[in-house]
Structures are given as C-alpha cells and as structure tokens.
Records
---
Amino acid sequence: MKTRLGRRLTKLFGLDHPIFLGGMAWLGTAELAAAVSETGGLGIIGAGNCDAAWVREQIERVRRTTARPFGVNILLISPHAGDIMDLVCRERVPVVTTGAGNPGPYLKALKAAGVKVVPVVSSVALARRLVRAGADAVVTEGSEAAGHIGETATMTLVPQVVDAVGREVPVVAAGGIADGRGLAAALALGADGVQMGTRFICSEECIAHPAYKEAVLKAGDRATAVTGRSTGHPVRALRNILTREFQKREAAGASRAELEEFGVGRFRAAAVDGDVARGTVIAGEASGLVRSIEPARVIIERTVREAEEILRRLAGGVS
C-alpha cells in the first residue's frame, strides 16, 4: 500500500515509499535493486569500480524483473565512471545517484537524456552548487554512513541542507538509518525520505557472503572504524584485523599510494569471498540496529509502518 509519507519525493520518482537503496558496490546487484523497486522504493544498482558491460547486464536484469523505477549509483572516482555515464544516458535509466565526487560535468548530458540526477552530498556548499547546476534531489549523507564519508553527522547535516536547498528540491537523509525510527526522525528534520544501505546488506536478496551478513548482525554500537583519512577518502567499515593494520600504517606515515595498494581487493575479499577478518567489511553505524535477515519487502514495509505509527503518536501528543 502506498504511504502518504514523503509525498514530494514519491511523486517525483514514481515511488510508493520514500526509501532509496544505498548504492553499494558488489552488493547492490540486480536481485536487490529489483526487490526494493518492486516493493515501491527506489532500487539502486551499485556500479562501484565495475565496468560498463557489468552495469549493462544489471540494468537488463532489473528491467526483466520489474517495471518500477530504479537507478544506478556511479562512483565518480572509478576509472569507468565516464563509460557508465554514457551507458545510463543511452539506456535512459530513470535515476542516477553519484558518490565520491562532483557530478557537475555530467549533469548536462544526463538531463538531456531524461535521467533524474541525485548526487550524494556531505556538505551544504556542494548541495547548493549541484542544485544550481540542475540536480533533481540530493541525498544528504552523514558521517555515520558506510563506505566513503564526510565529516558532519546526519542529525546536524540534514537540517542545514534542508534549510539551504529544501525549498527547491527534495532532500533524502542517509547515514545511521535502519528502521522506522530513523525514517520518522529524518522527516522531522525536514527530509523528504531516507536512503538505507547497511540495513539491506542483511536482506535475503543481497548477495553478500553469509559471513559478511553475520558480521553485521553481530555488530554493536562501537563496531565500526574510519580509515583512510590521510588519503583524502575516509571509509567506514567494521573493525577487524585489516582496519587495525591500516590505522597502524597510517599512523606510521605510509604514503597514499602505499595505503591504496594495501587496500586493493579487500572489499571483494569480504563481500564475495567472506574474509571478514582481513577484508573490508563496509558497513555503517546503523549495523548496531540490524538484528535479522529478511526479505527487502519486509524491511521496507515495516520501516514505513513503524514511522507512520511514531508520527501518529507524536501528533497526538502521546509520549
């Protein structure tokens, strides 16, 4: 059933629920993206560092599974970013979200192809710049999020971005959100909806290795660490042997090139091969809220139902 929450966002993107799937490399495959879209959220294929041929295959698989809107997340620091931009324009993918950079140079081509563009931003300045350039909405991601992060927390960043650009475009809150309480809080901060990634790692449709999912399920409130600040690309992941060694090398003054070489292939090792000790287990602080593996449909419908109940209770003045 279509919710009344986040109507500006759901109307713009043709959704039933104001929930985006985070753009997760290796994990945001057609299976998960299609399941989220079919339930009425916005499923997102995570391109990561994959090439355009892989992304084309995923697009085709989503379209064979659902007729609902979906998107592709493009990591702008990927060597394949330009080719994937060309692909999504040719394929007229409904939505593109972007991460780890400024998509400004691509906006004109994307808009000309009829693609709705939703950059992931971690600052007010970047949100303003991209909305002026023609972004259709922004995902405002706090530092609690998984993967590449900024410096400002969700609770303070979201309302500032809403104040700056919320009159012009919908604002989607991300970072630390995994249930209906997070959705209700985001709406209270002025956002039009939420993006969740870590919660969907523990969905039945996610292809993450069972050991990876189990690591997320076992995570507590202090389970994550941030590495790579010295490289200019800080990343949040679950603490393990790898993160401790990475931080040790950073403290010893290892160069950016040495650190990047040390991290090559580590995410795949965890996500695909299940090496959760020496692989990069990308997960946000919301991992401490994840306690079960369920179908994406159940996750979405419960999140919306919980948020609706919370907001009704608060509107009635019930503590």
Note: The chain has a mean pLDDT of 94.
---
Amino acid sequence: MIIALDAMGGDYAPEETVAGAVTWSQASDDVVLLVGREESLQGELVKYDYDRERIRIINASQVMGMDEPVASLRKKQDSSIVVATRLVKEGQAEAVVSCGSTGAQMAAATLVLGRLEGIERPPIVAGAPGVKDRVTLLLDVGANVDCKPQQLMQFALLGSVYASAVLGMKNPRIGLLSNGEEEGKGNKLSTETYALLQDQQGMNFIGNVEGRDLFFDKAEVVVCDGFVGNILLKALEGFAQLIGMSCLAETGQMPSLFARLDNSKVGGAPLLGINGVSIVCHGSSKREAVYNGIRIARQCVAGQMVAKQQSALRGQQK
C-alpha cells in the first residue's frame, strides 16, 4: 500500500512527521510518500537508517500555515497538503494523512478528491472510549460548524458505514445528541433532524442521546453538528487530562483508561463523504500519533471505506 503523508503539516513537522513515517516503514511493507520541501525532508531522513524503497520524497515548495485562512489554499497549489491529496486523486497513493490545518485539509479533499454523490459536507469522525473497551463514534467533530438537518442525516449514514466497514460493528445504533432523550427535546436543528432520521429505512436509529451516554454503550454512532462536537471532544480531552493529572498526583499512577484518550494512540480520524481516504491528525501530533494516523489510513483503505460509503448512498437514493 502507498500512503501520502503531508510531512510539513503540524506543530512539530517535519521532524516528528518524518520520524513517524520511518517507524511505520520499518514495521510494515507499505510505502510512505513524504510530501514537502525536499531539502528539509532530506535533512531529517539523514538521521535514520531506512529503506529507500519504502520512504520516498515528493517535493512540494509551499506550506499551509496552521492559522492561515483556508482561502489561501487556492494560491498555494504546490503546498504539501494539496500535492499529497493530488497523489491520491491521480492514483499514485491510496490515502493521505496530515497533521496540518484541518480547514486546509478539508478544502483540499473537497476540491481535489471531490465529495461523494449525495453528500453536501464531509464530516470528521472521532471515537469516545466507553465501558468494556467499547468505542462510540462522534461526528461531526469540527469540520462543519453550521449544519442543516439533511446534512446531519448524511453524517448518520456515513458514520454507520464507517462503524461497520472499518471497525466491524454490526448494525450500529445511531443516536442524535441532544439535551434530553425525549423526542421533542432539543433546538430546531435537533427536532428536525430527529424527524428525518426516524423516517430512514435500514438505519438503526434509536433516538436522542445525552452527552453522558457517550461512554455507556447507548449507541455506536452519535451525530451532532461540528460546533457542538468539537467543543464536546475538547472538553473531554481537557477533563481527561485533569483527572489523569489528579490521579497521578494522589496515587502515583495513571489509570489505564486514559491511554484510550491519548491522541498519540488514536492517531487520526477520517474525513467521511470524500471520494478518497483523507486522515486528519491532531496539530500537536508527534511521531507515535503520526504512526497511528498512517495505521488508520491503512485500515480505511483495507476496509474499502469509500466503496462502502458509495454503496450505502446509492441504496439511500433508490
């Protein structure tokens, strides 16, 4: 498998992105294409003993800054994220992984790879740990802050396909995040989305779920807009850090649960609804997170995630 890595994206690029790619190449038979400024990447690679057949450099002269407006992407067609995404479009790579600007990555994926038919906006999916080592998928977690009911319904369908195709969950239960379990609870977006989901045949919609339900095996997939999802995800990360630090200070040990909340172990999350595999990693990712982001990309390709999304969407349109 060939995976393109935006080696210039992220707070610790290219040092940590290159390190993660080299580690992956040593543990697998995959080829990683390091996309970025060739001189910088060569300067990092000299630190390692690596297989030159499995680590290759694709030069890209420009870099999209983490705080740079997404509109700048149109003027930076030789940026590492655009070049890496184009490699997937051209069939030279099977997935792209980036720790850079989420907005830029989403824009590159949408403009270069294109959305799947029937999808208005691609969401990002992330997992919340739960009881008995279960995971609840939450989407959207930041790609789309303003959404319409139809778009949330699409998120539900895409999340369901990802849960079954990549994570092996059978007939995943779909919940709608709200401020109460009752059907009438929530704002206008919630109540209108509820009605749409309730009418979808073949979707295992169980109704509203509350924030606390994420951790207690209430549903495999929970849907919300990206504004709410991103706040919830970051609040969870911050609270986990607080509890973890408190436990460490009081007992000298970190509970094993917190390893499941560690960004470096999770790696990354796929953009769904895109005609290709594009994995979004945390901007603060270091080598272990980069390694695991590549691992997620491989799982998505091996699970035929894009083809299964297309099939599910065709079924919905009939």
Note: The mean pLDDT is 90.
---
Amino acid sequence: MKAVVFAYHNVGVRCLKTLLARGVQVQLVVTHPDSPTETLWFDRVADVAAEAGIPVAWVDEAIDEALIDRVAALAPDYLFSFYFRRMLPARLLAAARIAALNMHGSLLPKYRGRVPVNWAVLHGETQTGATLHVMETKPDAGDIVAQQAVPILPDDTARDVFDKLTVAAEIALWEVLPQLLRGDVPRQPNDLSAGSYFGGRKPEDGRIDWNQPAASVYNLVRAVAPPYPGAFFEAGGHRFIVARARLAAPGLAAQIANDAAPGPHVVGGHILAKTGDGGVLHLLELWAADRPGVPLDSAPFSELARLQS
C-alpha cells in the first residue's frame, strides 16, 4: 500500500510512525519549514522522514502545481494529512487512488476549523479527541473514518490536552489501518449541522477581562498557557503573562476583601485575582512579558504593577 503524507507537529510525527509500523510504503513526505517566530516545542516530521529514508518536499505558504504533478505521478493509494497547515486543493485530493484522509484534533463535527484543542479548553469542554476523516475542499467536512476520545480534566491546559490528543490520533489511525490496507474505508456521516466551526486565534485574543466570570478567565488561561502565547493583562504600564493559575481554594479566596475591585491583588504573599462574578483565581506563575519564563514573586509583581499595599 502506497501513500503520500502531508504532516507537521507531534501528531504528524506519531501518525507517520504509525503508518511505517503498519508497513505502509510512504513515497513522499510533505512538511513545513519551521518558523523563526514560533516557539518550537514539538518534534519535526522531517527528521522522522530522513531517518526512514523518505524523500521530503517543503511547503510554506502555498502548494504549487509542480508538487501536485509530482504527487499525481506517484499514483498513491492514499493521501494522508496529519496536522498539515494548508488546505489540499481538489486536483491534489484526486491524486489518491482510494482516498485522501485528514486527522483533525476534535470529535467532528464539533470544533471544525483552526486550533480545535484551544477552543475546546476555552469553552470548558470535558472531552475532545481525534478524528480521521475523508478530505473534501470544504474544511473538516468529509465522512468520518475513525475517532478516539480523550477527557479534558478541570486543570488541564491546552498543552496537556494536545499531548493526549496526539496519542488519540495514533490509536485511531492504528485501529483503522488494517481496513485501509485492504482498501476498505469505513465511513460515517459528518453531520455539519450538529457541529461547530472556529477560526484561528491571535496572541491579542489572550487579553484577560477581569470582569468576566472566574470560570471564563480560568478557561482562557488554560487554553493559551505556554507554550502558546499566554493569557495576559496590563498593570502599572507593564504587561504580565499568567503562565499557571488555579481557581483559588475557599480559604484563600476569602482573604480578598468583598469590596476589592476585579483584577490582581497581593494578599499574604499570594497573587490573587478577583473576577466579575466575585470568584478568585490564584495566579501560581506570573511572568513579565519582557522576561518570559522568569516567574515573578509577589513583591516584585506588586512593585511593577504599582499595587497599593
């Protein structure tokens, strides 16, 4: 069984390794050059391909006609897309003799579109997963081939969930590959009317509004916690990133005065933040934006933020 693989990130690495472990002949791997502006906390698909002796092609912004011609000439049985960051055009999808399949990071039809893990955490979901589906020109719209669910625990960050999802993608692919190797593609309808679609997120979307309820602010912190850009607020002319937080325990939350304004306060050596519904977050790790990765204690934070004692 022959395949061309479009892949990036940890899901791309694990799914490519899964194909090789099942004996799929991968003729070509197409991946992205790493961006110098992005925090590279994930493994490189190109390294796996090089170790396996598989030719590699690179795509940055667009898939050109020469690459489409190259793939078509290979006449693969399958095209696989594993966290590849570009839509595959119709002529490329048609190059697959049996099917073109994509691994998406949600339980479709929920959370179609971009950064599905971050959106799921932001919305307080308790479950997500990985879905292998038939690719169409419309994003994440084709029939469902395989799914694997994972839980989202109350204190999981998006990175925690992404690590689980990487394993879920590997399991979903591993389980369905025997059928795919026989040329049998199991299909279930992907009812888009029962799902949701979300676009990409920008670093500015991590700005905290302390007037929001505590659960909403906490979900935002979890959804964009490092290695993502992080939830942030400004005080005293400085920007601060909330790297880790928890909903404050009742005894700790009670230490903030009832008439305290929404926002961060230093109380008994703890950095506590009151929210619009009266809830309190315990800010466990705080960074100055100009010194990412360096935790601030309560005293220097209080000084930089110009908090009243």
Note: The radius of gyration is 22 Å.
---
Amino acid sequence: MIADAGVGIANLVDRATARADELDREELRAGAARLESIVAEHRPHVVAVAGVTAYRQGFGRPQAVAGEQPESLGDARLWVVPNPSGLNAHDTVATLARAYAEPARAAGLLG
C-alpha cells in the first residue's frame, strides 16, 4: 500500500469537475488546510498534490510550477504533479508516468 510507504497523493477537493475553474479559491484553500491536517496526523515522507492550478490557488503560490516545491508540507517533501484529467491533452501517459515517478523515487519506491 502506498500510504504504508510514507507517500500521499491528494486532490485538494473531493468532487469531480470537468475543469479546474469550476472550483473556487475558498474551496481549494479549505482543501489545502485539510491536507495540512492530514499530513500532520499521518506524517508521510512525500506528498504529491494533483493539479498545478489547484495547488497555486489552494496554497496561495501563484508562481508555482509542477515538480518538487521549494517548501515542504509539514515534514514531507512536496511535489505538484499533473492532474491526469483528459482535459490535460498536452500530457501523455509517458509524461504522466515521469511526473508521478519523481515523488515515488523520493520516497524510495522506485530505483
């Protein structure tokens, strides 16, 4: 199980939407606060947040880019990975696999 390995992958909001702009800033900030509480409780080594737009708005980091973030989330190293939504047509299975492999490697799950 991935949680047993000290890795968390999270959406900030627990509902499906067709587009990221269907989520408002308050909803994303509430999701970020929830995630911070979960991380404080479970203390994973690595956390990956799905969706750069959601991360930017939820955590108030408007210039954030995908990949490892300079700040941590609690004690966890923090990544932003692409949301695998079909609307992200520029991402392929190969680019998604590379993006999700980075936090997995950091957690020691991949060589």
Note: Strands lie at 7-10, 46-50, 67-68, 77-81.
